[in-house]
Structures are given as C-alpha cells and as structure tokens.
C-alpha cells in the first residue's frame, strides 16, 4: 500500500511517525512538502519537495506512483492545494482524507475581531492599534504594505521578501511557543494589537492567552473551508486508523 501525505505540518509529521512505527506490514509512505521553508523538519519515510503542477499534475502523480490513499495534512490555510487534492483524488479514483487541527475558540475575556482575509485584517488594524504583532507568516505581507502609519513585528520561520510593511522588525522563530515567551514579546515590543490566522493547535496558541491577559485586541483571519465531500479528522491517530483500516481491507466510514 502506498500512502501520499501532503504535509509540512506537525500533524503530518506525527502521522508519518505513527505509520512508520506500526506493527506488521507498514505502508509505504511518501511525504510531500511545498518547499516554502528553507530547512523543514523532515518526517520519516520518503520525501519529495515542490508542487505537482495543479490538480492534473497531482492526479498524474497519483496514477504514476500507484498511490492507494491520499492524506491532505497541509496547513489549514493551504486552500489551493486542498482543492487540487480533492479534484485529483476524484480524477485518479484515490481515497482522500483531510487531517485538520480544530479551530481556536474564543475564551472569556478575549477581544477578537474576525476577518475573512488578510486584506480585511489590514483594513481593521488602524482602528485597533499602532504597534502590531503580525503572526501570519512571511507569505501575504503585501496586504499590509500600505499601512505606513503602523509599526509591525513580523514573526516567521524564514525572512520575508518585499512587498511588506515599511515600518517592520522581523523576528525569526519557529514554534512551539511558551506563554512566558509570548508575554515577553508583547511587553518588550509594546504591542497593542495581534494579528493571527486561525491555524488552531497548541504550538502557537499561547499568544492568544498572552493577548487576553494583556487586554489586547486580536484580529483572527478565518480559515478557508475544506472542499465539499471530503472527510475530515482532527488528529493523526484518527488518520492512522483510517490507513490501517484500508491496509487490512476493512471499510472505514466515509461520511460524518
């Protein structure tokens, strides 16, 4: 059995580890990384880096490499590859499962302002603060490039490239982050508003707690939907069970 994991996330690595540690006849696993991070943490199994050339290219790859199951374990905001995966899986007649960490849920005391896009988030900022902790990564900074009246602390794994905000300091770092560390970032840089994508998960959630404690507004960019008809599970263990069921020829429910 050949499994292709569209990865690059903590959940994708954990799934690859679970499949590699399985007893008996473990499946062959290929991990696909987009190549946007210079030094990614590599999961166990075979690794390929780079795109497929859209849905048609991915469908061709699935057929050529005789893939028996496709796991979309990409970042919740990697919307294009998710829709390409759904189309490719349907074209190549390969079962598809989406692995998505649950969304964050506001707690008592949170001051959240939801936005449908980075552009909407940028329009909200001038009414909320002047010193922005921007934690949406290095992609998409062009949406904030015209906000010359604001100062930005941009945190990303790799250094961003233009266009980006004119008044900006870059903090190169990779999660998971601690609550104490996030409190210090907000204090040291005198942050008065935080911007984040609804990535979910625990690795980057402490900034939300730190913002709540400090009484700061948080602009939360909503995640794009999973394509219609694609089954979604919340954790690597559930995805591993889905693979195990198929490996041993037992039907795993496809609805719900």
From TrEMBL:
This is Putative Precorrin-6x reductase. Pfam families: CbiJ. It comes from the Bacteria. PANTHER family: COBALT-PRECORRIN-6A REDUCTASE (PTHR36925). InterPro entries: Precorrin-6x_reduct. The keyword Oxidoreductase applies. It comes from Streptomyces viridochromogenes Tue57. Pathway: Cofactor biosynthesis; adenosylcobalamin biosynthesis. GO terms for molecular function: precorrin-6A reductase activity. NCBIfam families: precor6x_red, PRK08057.1-2. Keywords: Cobalamin biosynthesis, Oxidoreductase. GO terms for biological process: cobalamin biosynthetic process.
